[in-house]
Each structure stands twice: as structure tokens, then as C-alpha cells.
Amino acid sequence: MDLTYPPEAETFRKEIRGWLEENLPAGWFDEGFEMTADEKKAFNEGWPAKLFAGGWICAAWPTEYGGKGLSTMENVVLAEEFANAKAPLRADFFGDTLVGPTILQHGTEEQKKYFLPKILKGEMAWCQGFSEPDSGSDLASLKTTAVLDGDEWVINGQKVWTTQAQYADYCFLLARTDPDVKKQAGISYLLVPMKQDGIEVRGIVQPDGTAEFNEVFFDGARCPKENVVGGLNNGWTVANSTLSHERGMSATTGFRRFAQELDLMVAEARRNGRIDDPIVRQGLARYHSKIQILRINGLRSLSATVNKTRDPAVAVLGVTNKMFWSEMHRDAMELALDIFGASSMLVDTQPESQTWPAVMRAKGRDTYRPSPMMSSFFFSRSETIWGGTAEIQRNIVGEKVLGLPREPKA
Q: Cα–Cα distances in Å, from 121 out to 7, 39, 52, 140, 159?
């Protein structure tokens, strides 16, 4: 690695710190700072507007599209300072992290001028319409269709595991627009309004009673003809761009959430004496080592980008890094349950706290809620699936990097 922070990046760092100190709630940086539920709600509602006013949402975008045109290292410093302050840096994940960069890369000028300002301002919520009941890992086998009727596409089909569909204004959707060519070649990437007749959203209730994921049914739904991104029947290429944004991790901050979890696990192991168990100690050491590998791989990738050098290994880091950290985190959460014990499956992980059912009854809710540790465990099981399953990513590495033959078709 050959990486240095230029003086202008460090000057920019001071600017960001000053803005954060001025705009975050009073006491934010004090030890033990907490907000009430109402304060959190007010903060979450008002923060996107503050981010937009500061110009921090998608700040690396070109200035003509509302960004600050930041350099790579300035963007790294921006991510670092927000991570250090534990302050959110997004208005809408699907908008400014996935579909926004995709429109920026593949969209027409008209699409950029219409959609990008609304994404930057946090005025337009998005959801992702990729997965279908029989098209998960084999996404190219999707069956949702879009047929041109005059100046509009008529859409029929079903999507599943569609996060935040119940709140979305638009869906970036993959649909089959040519059924007579090979499956990857007949797909288009459409921007579909969600608030219309012909679209039904049904929540998929999770064990904790929430319904973040949804099924979405399209029955004669419509979107304008010009809402195809990247050209007709080029959706497979465009979708892979979106997935590359989803798989991307900030080079110098992505590892930090895992390091924070490791600190909590070590503290609990010391408190309850499990730190003396050699198997637990070895597991913690293994997790620490993998976090450092993740950190170094991020720096390696960033170094190659900044110095415009070619590193053969960096070319596959986008796929292998996601596969690496998702499986690392899944295994770490199994270790965490061993450390926190059986109670972590049913009660809050802090020893002095009441059980969740008692807490919920006190708040007038008699529904089951898992502990924070159990929620992390549940979520870690999904991380090897979204953004491309680990099994499919292994196929990609085997075929594209190692030159292994493709698996024979049944």
C-alpha cells in the first residue's frame, strides 16, 4: 500500500468536524449521551434536510448534478469524520447509494435532471425490485414483464423481499422486455412510480413483529416509456452496476462496525468469565484477525484507486470482500450468542435490563421483540444472501478469476 492524505484533505477534515459539531444535537459528543424516542424521531426527520443544506449527500457527485465534486481522498475523509461522529451520512440508502449512482452512470440527461435533485434533497424514497419468488440467486430468470403500450410500459409480475416498498415513491425495477432472446439479453431497468393503481404491497411479517420486507404485485402498472435506464434490453448490465454500488464498502470505515461489536463481545466475555474459555478466546482472536484483513484490503483497494495502479487481486475485491465479511460476521454472531449466553435470545443483553416482553407490556404492546444481540444474529444470516449470495459469488470467482469450467446445466 502507498497511501498518504494530502494537505487539502486534512483541511477539509477540519471543515467537516466543525460542521458536525455545529449541526448535531447538543451533547452528542458527550459520553453516555442518549436521546428519547421523540428526540430520535425528530432528529431522523430533520437530519436529511441538514445534510442537503451542508452539501454532504452524494458529495462526490459532479457539481452540475448537485454534488461537491469531491476527490477520492476528500470523500474518504468525509466518510471517516461522519463515522467518527457516529452521524448518518445518507438521506435514503436506495436512492443516494444505489439508484442515484446508477442514474448518474447510465441515465439520460433528462433522467439525471429530474431524479438526481430529488434524491439529493431526500424528497423521493426508493425501493429495489429485483428478486422474485423463483428468481433469487438466478436473477436473470425473472418473469416480471414490461410491454410497451403507446408511450407507457405496462408491467405485470411479482417481486419479493422488497425493503421499504410500503414507503417508496419509486421502484428501480428489472423486467423482461424481450422474451425471444437469451435471458440476460431481454431485461430492461425501469423507474416505476409506486403510488398508482395496479401495484399492491404486502408486508412480510418477521419474528419480531416488524414488516420491513414486502411482496409487491404488479397488475397492469405503468411507467413512462422514457423511464428506461441505460437503454432497452440493457438492464442486466445496468443492474450489475447497481449491485456493485451495493457491494461496495467505504475503504477506511467499513470495518468499524465489526470492530465495535468485537469490543462489546470482549467486554461481556470479561464480565461473565467466558474470556477464560480457550475456545472463546480463539474465536475472538480469529474475529479480530479477520477485521484487520478487511481493513487492510480496503486500504489496498483505495491505494490502487488513488495511485491509478493495477493490482490483480484488487480487481476481485468487490466480490470477495462482500463474501468475506458477510461470512465472517455470520460466524462472529454465533460466537456472540455463545458469549452472551441463552438469555441473549430472549432478553436485552444488558444484565440489569428487564425482559423484552415486560418492557413491551409496560409500553402497551404485548408483542415479542428480540434482544439487540438476537436482532444482530438474525440480520447476519441475511448478509450472505443480499447483494449476491456467497454461493454465486464463489462461482464468479471460480469462473472469472481462476478459469474453472462452468457447471454443467441440468
A: 30, 22, 6, 33, 28
Please check whether residues 163 and 282 belong to one and the same domain: no
How far, in Å, are 87, 89, 204, 402 from residue 123 at the CA level? 20, 16, 26, 45
Catalytic residue among 152, 212, 215, 246: 246
Is 31 one of the catalytic residues? no
pLDDT of 283-299, one tens digit each? 999 999 999 998 888 88
How far apart are alpha carbons 210 and 339 in whole angstroms? Answer: 27
Q: Which three cell numbers stand for residue 37?
A: 424516542
Q: 244 falls in which pLDDT band (50, 70, 90)? A: low
Those residues with Cβ within 8 angstroms of residue 241's Cβ, 6 or more apart along the chain or in another chain: 101, 102, 105, 106
Say which residue the cell 439520460 belongs to: 108
Task: Report the 10 Å Cβ neighbour count for 406.
Answer: 8
Please say which residue of 89, 118, 146 terminates a domain: 89
Question: Which pTM was predicted?
Answer: 0.78
Q: Would the pLDDT of 128 be above 50?
A: yes
- Which residue range(s) make up the domain with 58? 7-89
- Cross-strand pairs, 228: 190
